[in-house]
Write a structure and sequence with these properties.
The chain is of the alpha+beta class. The chain has helices spanning 2-27, 53-59, 64-72, 75-84, 97-101, 113-121, 134-137, 196-199, 216-220, 240-264, and strands at residues 90-95, 124-125, 143-145, 148-159, 162-166, 171-181, 184-189. Belongs to the fasciclin-like AGP family.
Length: 265
């Protein structure tokens, strides 16, 4: 009897407590499930803008002569790869068509195909330079070009903001900026850049000094040391031995013969 009452009491107590526990459970929102911390992925680096050198030089300038050399030597592929597939960029110095027309001597027609290629490579630097960069670049001249160092290097000077170039054979300056946005810089120059490595052997010789003017007094009047007969000073005139041993001896013999005849007569 007592055992049954205990069971009933326990059941009643469980029934009365169950709604309270359920209400508390329903009122408490579940805790969020922790997720592993992860840093945000870095944004991809912006790709440099693609610049078609062929299109750029076709509409500017006119640079048709330089562009034709670029394409015939396949150097345009080298420059284009440097411009868009490297972190260094490129700087190109482009002469206008008139600069090639005014190039009378030396003539590019006498160059070999390899020399023409080196000449075109000589017109570019394997790095992007804005105009303001040339002021510092002048302090580290000479600067190697795409053609190489030594006889293929360029010297830069900045004169009041104007960039001057010296190849050792030809001198020119940057006359305008055609395109200057990293990674491609194209600048117009007044003359064709001629590398000393190719044209250094063709440097014309220095003109011979003018002959000294002749002195008329020395030519007209005989020297005081001359003998009067055209012989050099200090030397016996020609035929002097003949006069001594010829005429004088014969005179003495004639006189002796006359004396002998007088004695006998």
């Amino acid at each position: 009897m007592e055992f049954s009452m205990i069971i009933m009491f326990s059941s009643t107590l469980v029934f009365l407590c169950t709604p309270v526990a359920y209400a508390q459970t329903a009122a408490t929102p579940p805790a969020p499930t922790p997720t592993p911390s992860s840093s945000p992925a870095p944004a991809p680096a912006p790709t440099p803008p693609y610049v078609s050198l062929t299109d750029l030089l076709s509409v500017a300038g006119p640079f048709h002569t330089f562009l034709s050399y670029l394409e015939s030597t396949k150097v345009v592929d080298t420059f284009q790869n440097q411009a868009n597939n490297t972190d260094e960029g490129i700087t190109i110095f482009v002469p206008k068509d008139d600069a090639f027309k005014n190039l009378k001597k030396p003539s590019l027609s006498n160059l070999t195909q390899d020399q023409v290629k080196q000449l075109i490579l000589f017109h570019a630097l394997p790095h992007y330079y804005a105009l303001a960069d040339f002021k510092n670049l002048s302090q580290v001249s000479p600067v190697s070009t795409f053609a190489g160092a030594g006889g293929y290097a360029l010297n830069f000077t900045d004169v009041s903001g104007t960039v001057h170039l010296d190849s050792g054979w030809s001198k020119t300056k940057v006359s305008s900026s055609v395109h200057s946005t990293d990674p491609v810089a194209v600048y117009q120059v007044d003359k064709v850049l001629l590398p000393e490595a190719i044209f250094g052997a063709d440097i014309p010789p220095a003109p011979a000094p003018a002959p000294a003017p002749e002195t008329s007094l020395a030519a007209d009047s005989p020297s005081s040391d001359s003998t009067g007969d055209g012989s050099a000073p200090g030397t016996s005139p020609p035929n002097s031995s003949y006069r001594i041993f010829g005429v004088d001896v014969w005179s003495q013999l004639v006189l002796a013969l006359i004396g002998v005849l007088v004695v006998f007569l």
